[in-house]
């Protein structure tokens, strides 16, 4: 069975010598839907020796049923976003590349726990609606259960909490 997906391209900006402590600073500028003209290989969009922008096209973002909670958390955060994981090239620290993209808050959290670099940029409104429809169909939050106050538990039960 095919999963819902969207093809996207990521624009990454590199700034040279942003301060006395950094040689390079990178940031994700935007995530846009893939267009045929973008091709499939990373390419330089702009470079003025101080700042450059690179496009990393042809990334597929798939939706998975078991990530429903992560999509729900993203949607209810106030501003749904793309989470973009990127890495600096170890052989050439003046270069970086986009590695993965997700819409799941939980998956982005796992990447951060693994010490990866993750930036986020706003999700376009029509894709928010797409993600909301998928999440509504495939994710039902667990009902909250009331916990008994510790004062109503025996001393043995309090120690097991």
UniProtKB/TrEMBL annotation:
Pfam families: DUF3305
Ranges where the record places region Disordered: 140-161
InterPro entries: DUF3305
Full protein name: DUF3305 domain-containing protein
Organism annotation: Caldimonas aquatica
Lineage of producing organism: Bacteria, Pseudomonadati, Pseudomonadota, Betaproteobacteria, Burkholderiales
């Amino acid at each position: 069975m095919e999963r819902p997906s969207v093809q996207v391209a990521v624009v990454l900006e590199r700034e040279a010598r942003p301060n006395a402590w950094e040689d390079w600073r990178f940031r994700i500028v935007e995530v846009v839907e893939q267009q045929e003209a973008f091709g499939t290989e990373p390419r330089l969009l702009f470079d003025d020796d101080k700042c450059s922008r690179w496009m990393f096209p042809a990334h597929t973002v798939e939706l998975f049923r078991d990530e429903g909670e992560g999509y729900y958390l993203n949607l209810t955060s106030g501003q749904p976003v793309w989470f973009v994981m990127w890495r600096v090239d170890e052989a050439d620290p003046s270069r970086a590349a986009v590695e993965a993209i997700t819409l799941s808050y939980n998956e982005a959290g796992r990447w951060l726990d693994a010490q990866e670099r993750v930036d986020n940029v706003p999700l376009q409104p029509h894709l928010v609606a797409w993600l909301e429809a998928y999440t509504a169909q495939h994710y039902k939050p667990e009902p909250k259960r009331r916990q008994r106050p510790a004062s109503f538990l025996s001393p043995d039960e309090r120690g097991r909490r």
